Amino acid sequence: MARIVMKFGGTSVANIDRIRRVSELVDDEVKAGHEVAVVVSAMSGETNRLVELVDVLDGDGDQGGAIEDEYDAIVSSGEQVTSGLLAIALRRRGVKARSWLGWQIPLKTDMAHSKARISDIETLAMDPSLKDGVVGVVAGFQGVSSDGRISTLGRGGSDTSAVALAVALKADRCDIYTDVDGIYTTDPRIAEDARRLGKISFEEMLELASLGAKVLQTRSVELAMNNNLPIRVLTSFAQPGEDNPGTIVCNEEETMEERVVSGVAYSRDEAQITLLRLEDRPGTVAAICGVMADANVIVDMIVQGRSRAENAANLTFTVGKRDLEKALKALEAVKGDIGFEDIISDSKVTKVSIVGIGMRSHTGVAKTMFDALAKRGINVEVIATSEIKISVLIDAEYTELAVRTLHSAFELETA
Amino acid sequence: MARIVMKFGGTSVANIDRIRRVSELVDDEVKAGHEVAVVVSAMSGETNRLVELVDVLDGDGDQGGAIEDEYDAIVSSGEQVTSGLLAIALRRRGVKARSWLGWQIPLKTDMAHSKARISDIETLAMDPSLKDGVVGVVAGFQGVSSDGRISTLGRGGSDTSAVALAVALKADRCDIYTDVDGIYTTDPRIAEDARRLGKISFEEMLELASLGAKVLQTRSVELAMNNNLPIRVLTSFAQPGEDNPGTIVCNEEETMEERVVSGVAYSRDEAQITLLRLEDRPGTVAAICGVMADANVIVDMIVQGRSRAENAANLTFTVGKRDLEKALKALEAVKGDIGFEDIISDSKVTKVSIVGIGMRSHTGVAKTMFDALAKRGINVEVIATSEIKISVLIDAEYTELAVRTLHSAFELETA
To answer: What's the ipTM?
Structure first.
């Protein structure tokens, strides 16, 4: 007998039939003798519907300050509905079950409404209920802030709910059911020969998640890594009886396969900003990073290139595409103070990355990458590296070509 | 400065534009210097949508027992969304506001999920917030049961939430905004000359509400009466600046108008059951009432008529149309035990009632009523009376004719 946390995303609970299918999958684990907690997202489309209602009213004026507390009260209702419905579906299959809302557990968070962080999960109420064989159906994505209001963990927060709950409940594993059957070497819609990985390390998954692979939410992987809790990613769309091993995300030592590069990720959510003829004196880059931080814009890849003019250089960096306008506005305002001549920007760029813990011990990975891209005539604008990844910024037109090129350059199609 | 509770039903918050209009009406009261709590229903259609989701899954089997706790968690989300949206709309008008869910107030109820009764409303948290000038936007219809689960008060429960909250907050008045501009002498869709009443007593309103006038929920009127809290019923659809006095529901002494009959109500939700040749021995009627109570069926009008056969009588009574099948099944099962020969039933009946506190001191009201009906050839099947009302059960085909006949017989069209 084990204790398991299962998590089902929006497409897995999209309608009544899908919820029934999920109740079967849960029932299978109960029948196997396990104690089960299930974390559910809102039915797909529901969160967007609610966010649109909020956005319309939010746009009515500038008065009245922040509304994130109310946003949370509204948007969290989606998961509330799903958790109740799944509890009913389970009961009607003869499985004991009850729903748990964030404030009922309680799953406590800080006060950062709409992007709250979990501070503590109490298991005093849930633990005995699970031990009694009652499946706990938990509304994901939500908690309760220290002032007793509903908080939400930000988009994709249900993954984080699931992993955090699994840690708090001392679960043996956390199974994340989604609409794909595991983690792939790259996006199968781009590279037909992309291959499902049997195992992947936390570190690699973390890079892939933050580099644009949208299967798992970054914070959930961090949390699993910090607590050494294995996550299994698998599909809720398999037919009953069908083989569905998924991908295990676990400690490096437990990943058996010897690979240099594990996957190719890409993100179209980037925009490039270049400040032309920036005055070259100590502290200007820091000042610009400060301006971006004040505007709540995250700066990603940064590269500084010396221009031919004396005491001046161009500074190029990337920001999220959605933040581009905000970033440009903030920079325009400090043009004179910081000292640069012009700003150019480009949102038709893609960040393509290769990820692999094998890079730590293997040389020549960068050379293979740049040779392969150059051979296809793909220009690299900006480069960023970490111990286990290399990212390049390229013209968005070349996205698919670059992904396929790197996928075969590192022979990811072969096990 | 007064403290006011305002309540808005589903059609009043049906969409974003309606919610904006409600925020104006609330703003008017705030600008007048009042402390305001607002109780809102779900956007119209939303509760039905959620109930349908529940019903589909509930129909999957007989296992797993009651699901009312999950029904409550699901269905209460409708009011949760509206309260958040109205709080945002108010802030964007520059009005300080926050939403309150049942468990946050807390509005405590018993454990009778889906038809819970309020046991206590704490004002320790809300009171200082209102005093600070923050409009409290309360999700109606919901509370928290003694085991910390969400409970709901049953259909129309938002009226009850509003009145109970007004009592707990020691509000000066409770304004119930709806889609009609007050309480009418009868249904204006049936009698064109129906007239809005300026005032009506609690007792009369209570009879009208329980007799089919759907403007106010019965329990909310009881609660207002027991606490002598005046309710004003008015429309949220008036144009800004338009006169909108509504109808005041208050203590008998404060209703100035001298009327014998105040209104004519009707209900098509009735069904008639007759047990033929019931054995005439002590306790049979009680036994039948017991059978109905065990089946959770409410028996309304009862009349016993002696048949020509010795030691046998016919017993006629009415039940809610929705309970008819359940009632017939329960009766069929005890046919031999209790002793009657046959059951006949009729669901094409309507209950038409006249209501007025003046009946207490005026004679001849019944005569006027039966004369008027007889003159139009309307047969009366069953009669029931109380101190301030007379109800008759008639063939449903005559509903409109009977309503109009009684409305003019008591000259309700003239003030």
So the answer is: 0.85
